[in-house]
UniProtKB/TrEMBL annotation:
UniProt KW keywords: 4Fe-4S, Iron, Iron-sulfur, Metal-binding, Oxidoreductase
One of the Pfam families matching this protein, by short name: FAD_oxidored
Location of the Golvesin/Xly CBD-like domain: 550-679
Xref: SUPFAM superfamilies: FAD/NAD(P)-binding domain (SSF51905)
Protein's name in the database: FAD dependent oxidoreductase
Example of a GO MF term: metal ion binding
Keyword rRNA processing: no
């Protein structure tokens, strides 16, 4: 027996909306008694079951469900709100991707489908990706995927209860009384609500640098998105007794690197246009010009803008984001959000909407601002053909960070800088370590923003499978691809929509393998998981094909030095947090040895990395000690900087008998020691 679903058929189940994504002519096997897709059955009134229950209709949640369907199993999505696609369909159309070539699997397919949508061409594995798009296009591409794989999406169904037997979730109950059951679960929400309700350990806020041996976590009073002109913070300028203007913390700023419970600011990613049919910026209920007094003073001090970004996404529209010291980020207003009640969250979201709509109204209309500022802002408006249900305003708050799981592997700054110890990669991240400001403070009588960090990474780096599964014993059938295990600053790099899609696919793949083997998610055969992921186009190492590589950074334990070596980060392209050089002295005395711990004997390709400059040596001798003795080669460090340069393939024993020695004998410039890499041949 079969049935044909309409293009986007809506069914009412209690208070929730169920979207059966089907397409005319697509025949999906069904349960004879219910008319529902096979394996997705209503067991009793208000009970639905599937092999995989996904909580959160984010990009990660959609990819998890689609991957489960591709593996021949059933999946459904439950979302507490009424929006499908998360930030990808919620205004973030100018994708933060880092190294776009490191996007693989279903994520890459999504962006190829976007390209095909605009180009009117077929989707092929070699088609270009388009990472810039209008919100409604992303929504249509996701709808096509949900349609193609008949994935039901239950909207407006808020989690209230998690049912468990031992260390396994058996079902989740939503506020309309619906029960969703199954053997596997994925928490794809931005908030980590299912993870928390299931009793999984998590954290909120910024760790001190000392917790994980980091350098840019915790409090960071820096120059990014900072006031560049002096602005008085007091209600009556020059009078501390008059109190602080709105949005400024009364607490003194703590020392750099210290931890707290603050999170980076949220905003809405607006889709703006100059089109004649644009919707003028509304004046929101509760508008108070005092909320923008700081910005007025900043402008009066001489700041000319910009006040937000206007990145083009096509169709004459933008993805507009925070830019500058006082912009669309509602700094300090979101700290209670991650663990708040539903009512409290609604209030926080409403406050953010009022703040940001009020900001745009202020910039376009306040007579105290220069005419140039008002006219430039009023020339823009909300796109009339986007977000029609919410008057052109994005329905999705940009929750940049909420809960973060603490599991068997916590991704940290070292991972982002390429010095981690990940052998169980399930995907790559590559974006800058990026934290928006967390608070406004007073320093020496002037207002300052605190928390902004923008530090690049040397290249794509792996995400550990252990970081998306709870610690063994906490929950055996839950995977967490969004609120994964990472420090605050590492999460700032990982938290990009392509990475969430990548990890959603990997999570579902692991769930299917765990079902097939009858094991917990913690006991999944990682090599088998990685093999299936590679077969499905997922990239697990960088450059592709470097799986199982062993990296020895200059800051690693497997390093010995002779003579004098100075740390530096003056020239970019280094691996890890810095590199070292011989100061162009001590020739023949200064030596630097990288010693790996190789897990198996066999052939390994040896690669060396350095930063290039005209003052570098062109004749650096390098000794590779291997099974057959020692081979010497010479490298030119004036070129090929920031790359892994192959020195040959050699047989090595297991353990620490092999090494790479950089010598400085008779070299004609600065000699750099950055990192060595050993790749299984």
């Amino acid at each position: 027996m079969s049935t044909v679903f309409g293009r986007r058929q809506l069914l009412r189940l209690g208070g929730a909306t169920l979207v059966i994504a089907g397409t005319a002519g697509f025949h999906q096997p069904t349960q004879a008694s219910t008319g529902r897709p096979a394996g997705l059955a209503e067991l009793a009134a208000g009970t639905v079951t599937a092999d995989l229950v996904v909580y959160g209709a984010t990009s990660a949640g959609i990819m998890a469900a689609v991957q489960m369907r591709r593996m021949g199993r059933t999946a459904l999505i439950v979302d507490p709100g009424g929006h499908v696609g998360g930030l990808t369909t919620g205004g973030l159309g100018y994708t933060d991707s880092g190294t776009s070539a490191a996007i693989g699997g279903l994520a890459a397919e999504f962006y190829r489908r976007v390209h095909a949508h605009y180009a009117g061409t077929p989707v092929t594995p070699t088609a270009p990706m388009r990472l810039v798009f209008e919100p409604h296009v992303a929504a249509e591409v996701f709808a096509d995927l949900l349609t193609e794989y008949a994935v039901p999406v239950y909207l407006n169904a808020r989690l209230t209860t998690v049912q468990r037997t031992g260390d396994r979730i058996t079902g989740i109950v939503t506020d309309n009384g619906q029960l969703f059951t199954g053997p596997m679960f994925v928490d794809a929400s931005y908030e980590g609500d299912l993870m928390a309700a299931a009793g999984v350990t998590y954290t909120v806020g910024r760790e001190a640098n000392s917790v994980y041996g980091e350098t840019i976590n915790g409090v960071q009073l820096r120059t990014g998105h900072q006031f560049t002109l002096p602005v008085d913070p007091y209600v009556v300028a020059g009078s501390p007794a008059s109190g602080l203007l709105p949005g400024i913390s009364v607490a003194p700023v703590a020392r750099n690197g210290s931890g707290d419970e603050l999170i980076q600011a949220y905003n809405f990613r607006m889709c703006l246009t100059r089109s004649a049919d644009r919707i003028p910026f509304p004046r929101p209920d509760g508008y108070d010009p005092a909320d923008y007094e700081l910005l007025l003073r900043y402008v009066q001090a001489g700041y000319p803008g910009p006040f937000y970004t206007t990145h083009s996404v096509g169709g004459g529209k933008t993805d507009s984001n925070n830019n500058g010291a006082f912009s669309t980020d509602f700094i300090g207003a979101n700290h209670a959000y991650p663990t708040a009640t539903w009512a409290q969250r609604e209030s926080i979201v409403a406050a953010h909407r009022t703040y940001q709509q009020g900001l745009m109204w202020f910039l376009a209309n306040d007579p105290r601002l220069p005419t140039t500022v008002r006219s430039a802002t009023a020339a823009w408006g909300l796109a009339a053909d986007e977000f029609g249900a919410t008057g052109g305003w994005p329905p999705q708050l940009y929750v940049r960070e909420a809960r973060r799981m603490i599991s068997g592997y916590v991704l940290t700054e070292r991972d982002c800088r390429g010095s981690g110890q990940v052998t169980d990669s399930v995907g790559l991240a590559s974006y800058t370590m990026d934290s928006h400001n967390c608070q406004r403070v007073v320093v020496d009588g002037q207002v300052r923003n605190e928390g902004d960090v923008q530090v690049g990474v040397p290249g794509p780096y792996p995400i550990s499978y252990r970081s998306i599964v709870p610690t063994a014993g906490q929950c055996a059938n839950l995977l967490v691809p969004v609120c994964l295990s990472a420090s605050h600053i590492a999460y700032g790099s990982i938290r990009m929509e392509p990475v969430f899609m990548i990890l959603g696919q990997s999570a579902a793949t692991a769930a299917s393998l765990a079902l097939a083997a009858g094991t917990s998610v913690q006991q999944v055969d990682v090599p088998a998981l990685q093999a299936r992921l590679r077969a499905d186009g997922q990239l697990l190492s960088w450059p592709p094909g470097g799986e199982g590589a062993i990296v020895v950074d200059n800051a690693a334990l497997g390093v010995t030095r002779a003579g004098t070596w100075l740390a530096s980060s003056a020239i970019g392209g280094y691996h890890g947090i810095d590199y070292e050089h011989d100061d162009n002295t001590g020739k023949g005395v200064n030596r630097f040895r990288f010693t790996p711990t190789l897990p198996t004997a066999g052939a390994w390709t040896v690669q060396l990395r350095w930063t290039a400059n005209a003052n570098r040596a062109s004749n650096v001798p390098v000794d590779i000690t291997h099974d057959g003795g020692t081979t010497t080669t010479v490298v030119d460090q004036r070129g090929s900087g920031g790359q892994w340069v192959a020195l040959g393939t050699y047989a090595f024993p297991a353990g620490t008998a092999g090494s790479v020695l950089i010598r400085t004998d008779a070299t004609d410039g600065y000699v750099v020691a950055d990192a060595a890499r050993f790749v299984p041949a």
